Amino acid sequence: KYSFMDFLTRETFVGKDDDTQEDIYAVIDKIEIPMIQRDYAQGRKNYNVEKRGNRNELNTTGEKFINELIAALSDSSQNSEMELDFVYGSIKEMPNGNQKLKYFYPLDGQQRLTTLFLLYWFIGGAELNAQSKKELSDILCNFYYATRTSSNVFCEKLVSELNCDTINFLLRTDAEPKETLVTQIENLAWFHNSYKLDPTVSAMLNMLDRIQE
Prior knowledge:
This protein is an alpha/beta fold.
């Protein structure tokens, strides 16, 4: 079993040697959501339920998953580990200069991986010091979307913000208007309104808003 960070930082089982049939272990260099996959959906809002206060509830799957993640993180007991069932896909070696990188293309697990990516980003931004944020960004930059250019660029820009001091990750209810994380992201110089037309980016912003709540 591997955590999201384990998968990008420690050796994992990647297959068997064709000749010896021995197990092969290697570090996955990048997780790429391939073009054939659908947009990120766990962050879509549920417009069919009554809104409670100012909170826009996510769809049933996304709401359930993020609540379970937060509950597991908040559990101080020894049994707080949360299993995510199977995440599977294909691993391919891709040339990169004089070396080859191992890419993981998820066929099942895209939604869970994306939510974990956003959760790591938020907690890292809120809790880590500058050096640890740099180390985290070096890992998270290896997760990206190939479904749309805008999705990929948004993920890259989001990760790069860990090395800046432009976002306040704490919700300021005393600010006017209320200074939410999403409001701050949308006010960054690199954020263009065209991002809002990308269903994956829009859903990511919704999930980040929910995580901050």
